[in-house]
Fold:
Amino acid sequence: MNIREELEKRSGNQCELCTATGNLNDLRLKPSLTDTLDTNILVCDTCKDQIDNPEKMDTNHWHCLNDSMWSEHKAVQITAWRMLSRMKSEGWPQDLIDMMYFEDADLRFAEATGDHLSDDEKIIHRDSNGAILENGDTITLIKDLDVKGGGNFTAKRGTAVRNISLVHDNAEHIEGRVEGTHIVILTKFVKKANAPQQS
Structure:
């Protein structure tokens, strides 16, 4: 049984957030890079669109979280917490957030997307063209970089670095592997792969 089939069985073929039954999507929670029942949920097009596009948030739709926040499944709980956190200025979502409880590791995972932060608190990683970087992205180096420490080599301009990680407390630093060496790279020296240039 693949992950999609397992999610359909778990959810009874309905959105795990609002219980809609049409146009369902298997959604992996960021920043996870693997598909598991703890990191994936089944959501309808409406929920997925608003999860992916915060500017489209319709707070009336999300009253469904009154029920789904109590799901026994970790991925559903975390998604509910993230969506409530985006709307906490409305008042009622904060009341629901106050009733939720997570183990420390799960709370750190829930906070990884920064949904609980206001816009001026968020650390946003941008490449040399201003494109927003996310965990798991592929970037290209735009200049030769001398790698110190265990590496002692030069990472050449044009080198692709796949599956990057964002340094959560520094918007100018990302991490990745070059020639098998784990390095920290300054965002001003990278370009997001296939990202349009910002004018």
Remarks:
- Strands lie at 24-28, 40-44, 139-141, 145-147, 153-155, 160-161, 165-166, 173-178, 181-186, 190-192.
- The mean pLDDT is 88.
- The first strand starts at residue 24 and ends at 28.
